[in-house]
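Researcher: Here's the sequence for the chain we discussed earlier.
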Amino acid sequence: MLETRDLTIRFGGHVAVNAVSCAFAPGTLTAIVGPNGAGKTTYFNLISGQLKASAGTVSLNGRQLTGPPSARTRAGLGRAFQLTNLFPNLTVLENVRLAVQATQDGAHRRGLNLWSIWSDHRDLGARADAILDEVALKAREHHTVASLPHGDQRKLEVALLMALQPQVFMFDEPTAGMNAAEAPVILDLIRKLKRDRSKTILLVEHKMDVVRELADRIIVLHNGQLVADGEPAEVIASPIVQEAYLGVAKA
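Model: Thanks. This is the structure I predict for it:
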């Protein structure tokens, strides 16, 4: 279980995330919603280690996470960003192979020897190929990442997350910047990930139709505070969400 307790960050006199306590269980996709500036991405950044908390804790399976993003990735957190975070001058296949290799220990890892000959790692190559098949990028495996359209770069980010085999998948607006033809591919990949009941999925998303379809649970942030938490229909219908998120005035 992933848990935050009184998680807080201040920027000068502004409290961007204010004492947010929440637990996220395996087998559940939780959507994190709220108006612009509510603190959603900042909350994500605190969990994944991009930002250092002013107060509070982040724990995974009862173990407090205090290190940088790389340490949290090794602990089991996987994060996809609004802006792609890839190696642009390497090919699609090379990106995924590096991610697969990064999960290996012992002889497969060999310290920082990321550029070892791939023929010595046929099992790693086979796994990379299988992941590319799953995200429908096998036909582009020899293309450089920089040459890919935006939608394919987002698919590749999901592929890298899958390669890292995290316990927790964190998606920050996964369909941002994608056209109507590209977005369903990403959503289908998230649906597939949901089938593994051992995984926890967190999703920041503005599109309420996506939230309604995918989420088992919704939490709402407003002015950095947790203001609602529950099943999607219940949360979306609540007066505080109608006012804070949807802009509907209280009766």
